[in-house]
Design brief:
Layout lengths: L2 E7 L3 H12 L4 E5 L5 H6 L1 H19 L15 H25 L3 E4 L1 E6 L2 E5 L5 E11 L3 E3 L12 E2 L1 H6 L6 E5 L3 H12 L3 E5 L11 H13 L3 E3 L3 E7 L4 E7 L2 E7 L1 E4 L3 E3 L6 H4 L22 E3 L10 H16 L13 E3 L4 E6 L2 H6 L4 E7 L4 H6 L5 E7 L5 E8 L6 H9 L4 H6 L9 H10 L7
Parallel strand pairs: 1-2, 1-6, 2-3, 6-17, 8-15, 9-10, 9-15, 10-11
Antiparallel strand pairs: 4-5, 5-6, 7-16, 12-13, 13-14, 18-19, 19-22, 20-21, 21-22
Length: 465
């Protein structure tokens, strides 16, 4: 029986990064996955959806805004199947890259279904039914999550979809009801709307993007409605009925109960952990009330030698967070210097149009916690690069403490704002203040100038507004 220092269950972003870091630290490492290297993110999530969003950006520009840019043509053809094909090419290339990294770092890859036989031993059942036993001093659970559903709604994969069917289908629907307005719902709303699909978003909570700052939600709803997306917040889906050529959703809200009809429905109400079917109960790993694996700051579970990272822990279900957790976990296993992750201060990104990015506290949360806050706000309408791009909607909102100028959070909506987060998260981590961000010279013209401008506003000496 092969004996490893570390065996990682799950080859998604968290799992494969954890395996690489463990191998770098001299630990004999293996990784197990039942389906594919790269996990959901590379195969049917983050990467192919971003490729589709690029196609959507071009489709919307040519279909809706061409005249604004002095472009005219006849007979525009939008080949959605080719967009999906291109997204698969991007995904496949990165998946092959993960395979190369496993070989480069001498990590053994076992494809099959993992199961605990004891805290330090596993069985792997391959597709052909053969079983391999593995011994491990440490096991890292990185099994991720799966799409949650609405109670009583049958996900048939054809009329009622999850993200997985949506990202793989080679045709776009003529009309769609999207249930939920987290990242998945907002991004697919952008993709389909850009191709001329009639899109309705139904969100049970009072506003779309409900985990973002309230003003971001309001701005996003305004911009979505400008694009022709029907936004129904504060509305609950009671049932979805699959008919011969369409779906009928019964919803209830302030206006009472009504029926919505569309060709398809996408259920995007969040994710639940993959904790079943591989023997966690057998070894006594503790779960919380939501079914998430409980861990400490080191990524350790209550069972010695068993660790967990990523979506399965429910800390912050984002690929880059899983990667960071994987690195910290491997370093703790190896006993080398590492850090503790401050989850609220990690970046959050949604690639809808306009993009949404944030980290830290919202204004409401900061005030609830007793901070005397200063707000630095700067609009993209006053940014030369944004105007040149023709993407001037949105703004940045920088939240800092009034006494010391410490950064408490930032909330951005606008063009490419997901690329603007690193300066702010690094500044927060290094305990820089808004005064120091204001003194950092930003290239002109660039979108990043809004960061310095917002910091100037927070410091009380606005320059360009």
């Amino acid at each position: 029986m092969p004996d490893y220092d570390v065996v990682v269950i799950g080859a998604g972003p968290g799992g494969y990064v954890c395996a690489i870091r463990a191998a770098q630290l001299g630990l004999r490492t293996a990784i197990i996955d039942r389906e594919w290297l790269g996990g959901v993110c590379l195969n049917v999530g983050c990467i192919p959806s971003k490729a589709l969003l690029k196609n959507a950006e071009l489709a919307y520009l040519l279909r809706v805004r061409a005249q604004e840019f002095g472009i005219s043509f006849e007979g525009l053809t939008l080949d959605y199947a080719r967009a999906v094909e291109r997204s698969r090419e991007a995904a496949d290339r990165l998946v092959k890259g993960v395979g190369f990294l496993m070989k480069k770092n001498k990590i053994d890859v076992h494809m099959g279904v993992a199961g605990f036989t004891a805290p330090n031993s596993l069985s792997v059942t391959a597709a052909d039914g053969t079983t391999t036993a593995l011994g491990a001093k440490n096991v890292v659970i990185a099994t991720g999550s799966k799409a949650a559903s609405v109670p009583g709604v049958d996900l048939d994969g054809q009329r009622v979809l999850t993200y997985r069917e949506a990202v793989l289908q080679s045709t776009s629907p003529k009309s769609v009801i999207i249930v939920g307005s987290g990242a998945v719902g907002l991004e697919f709303a952008t993709i389909w709307n850009s191709y001329g699909v009639e899109v309705t978003i139904v969100e049970m909570l009072a506003r779309i993007a409900p985990l973002e700052d309230e003003e971001v939600s309001k701005e996003l709803a305004k911009e979505f409605r400008k694009r022709g997306i029907n936004v129904m917040a504060g509305t609950k889906v009671e049932a979805i009925q699959v008919l011969k050529t369409k779906v009928k959703a019964t919803v209830s809200g302030e206006a009472g109960q009504q029926n919505l009809e569309a060709e398809q429905a996408l259920v995007a109400v969040g994710f639940k952990p993959n904790t079943e079917g591989f023997g966690l109960e057998k070894i006594g790993v503790q779960l919380d009330g939501r079914g998430m694996v409980q861990i400490d700051a080191r990524m350790a579970t209550n069972v010695p030698g068993v660790w967990a990272i990523g979506d399965v822990t429910g800390k912050l279900q984002l690929a880059h967070v899983a990667m960071a957790m994987g690195v910290v976990c491997a370093e703790n296993i190896a006993g080398v210097e590492t850090i503790e992750l401050d989850y609220p201060m990690l970046p959050r990104a949604t690639y809808c149009q306009p993009q949404v990015a944030s980290f830290g506290l919202t204004e409401a949360q900061a005030r609830e916690r007793g901070y005397d806050v200063r707000i630095g706000r700067f609009p993209f309408q006053a940014n030369g690069k944004a105007l040149g791009m023709g993407e001037s909607a949105g703004w940045i909102k920088l939240i800092s403490g009034a006494r010391y100028g410490e950064i408490l959070g930032a909330h951005l909506i606008g063009p490419e704002v997901t690329e603007l987060l690193p300066e702010l998260t690094l500044a927060q981590r290094m305990e820089l203040t808004t005064a120091e961000i204001a003194r950092n010279v930003h290239a002109h013209p660039s979108l990043s100038e809004v960061l310095g401008e917002a910091a100037h506003v927070a410091e009380g000496h606005a320059i360009h507004i």
